[in-house]
């Protein structure tokens, strides 16, 4: 995985790490607020970035980003760039909501598996995370900001992508748009594929071209990585799910599981406007 994008405030700004000598003080990202929610597994941190643009008559679009340490900062940058260039009513300003863990990076490697795909001994269950998102996070954020539920997206990469597909199936109609990057369907192939036709809405699935084991082998990727790709069949599962669900499927050339994240996020941010 690449280094996480913007944590609760700014990339690299850790509460327990002073700025290097001569380089000033820590900088916080304007317009971002956060709050913590308790859970049986140890709690979650929620970040909310509101656009500078006023809300349209129907409300803002909104994007709920799972495993936010890898995605929140880049999504905020994408939205800010759109904010500066908007010239017409067709471009929808969007609130960015990140759901992560109460750490400086928003990432907790010990809890990610349990909380998103049910793959660890400790931490909350995937079902508990979905209940917290649907029952606490969404009502709290959308009580405070005007939001258009016809442009409400859940987004995730890897484990977060698998979680988003499960949320689509288990809470049909809650999200108008679902975007998944390299979803880890291998963690529960039977259960996740079973939900492919269970819900409607607009669905985007993306992978990196080098997540295909043949392409990775041709590119000279390490042998152990190729073996892992064959075992997990990341690209095959994603393609089959997309076909079953009638989803938009996109492959990004020349990149693998981690390096695909920026391209995926750009595509997902645009997909919310569809």
What is the fold's blueprint, element by element?
Blueprint lengths: L31 E6 L6 E6 L10 E7 L5 H14 L8 E7 L8 H9 L8 H19 L2 E11 L1 H12 L6 E5 L7 H6 L7 E7 L4 H6 L4 H10 L1 H12 L2 E5 L8 H11 L3
Parallel strand pairs: 3-4, 3-5, 5-6, 6-7, 7-8
Antiparallel strand pairs: 1-2, 2-4
Helix pairs in contact: 1-9, 2-3, 2-4
Unreliable spans: 1-15
Compute the gyration radius: what is it?
Answer: 18 Å
**In whole angstroms, how far apart are the ends?**
29 Å
What is the H/E string?
A: EEEHEHHEHEHEHHHEH
CATH architecture: 3-Layer(aba) Sandwich
Q: Any idea what the shape is?
A: globular
Tell me the strand percentage band. Answer: 15-25%
Number of helices: 9
CATH homologous superfamily placement? Alpha/Beta hydrolase fold, catalytic domain
Mean pLDDT, as a whole number? Answer: 89
Helix content: 25-40%
Largest sheet: 8 strands, mixed
Q: What structural class results from the helix and strand content?
A: alpha/beta
Extended strand count: 8
CATH overall fold name: Rossmann fold
Query: What is the CATH level 1 assignment?
Result: Alpha Beta
Number of domains: 1
Region (Disordered): 1-34
GO molecular function: hydrolase activity, acting on ester bonds
EC number: 3.1.-.-
Pfam family, one: Esterase
């Amino acid at each position: 995985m690449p280094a996480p994008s913007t944590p609760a405030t700014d990339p690299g700004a850790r509460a327990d790490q002073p700025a290097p000598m001569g380089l000033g003080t820590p900088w916080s990202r304007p317009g971002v607020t956060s709050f913590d929610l308790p859970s049986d597994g140890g709690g979650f941190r929620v970040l909310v970035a509101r656009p500078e643009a006023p809300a349209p008559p129907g409300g803002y679009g909104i994007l709920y980003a799972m495993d936010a340490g890898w995605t929140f900062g880049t999504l905020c940058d994408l939205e800010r760039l759109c904010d500066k260039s908007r010239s017409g009513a067709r471009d929808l300003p969007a609130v960015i909501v990140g759901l992560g863990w109460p750490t400086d990076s928003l990432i907790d490697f010990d809890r990610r598996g349990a909380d998103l795909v049910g793959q660890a001994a400790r931490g909350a269950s995937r079902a508990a995370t979905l209940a917290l998102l649907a029952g606490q996070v969404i009502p709290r954020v959308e009580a405070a900001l005007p939001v258009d539920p016809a442009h409400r997206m859940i987004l995730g990469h890897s484990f977060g992508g698998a979680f988003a597909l499960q949320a689509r199936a288990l809470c049909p109609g809650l999200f108008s748009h679902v975007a998944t990057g390299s979803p880890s369907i291998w963690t529960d192939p039977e259960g996740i594929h079973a939900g492919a036709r269970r819900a409607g809405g607009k669905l985007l699935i993306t992978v990196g071209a080098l997540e295909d084991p043949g392409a990775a082998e041709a590119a000279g990727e390490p042998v152990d990585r190729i073996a892992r790709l064959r075992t997990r069949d990341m690209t095959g599962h994603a393609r089959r799910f997309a076909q079953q669900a009638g989803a938009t499927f996109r492959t990004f050339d020349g990149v693998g599981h981690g390096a695909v994240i920026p391209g995926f996020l750009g595509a997902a941010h645009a997909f919310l406007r569809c």
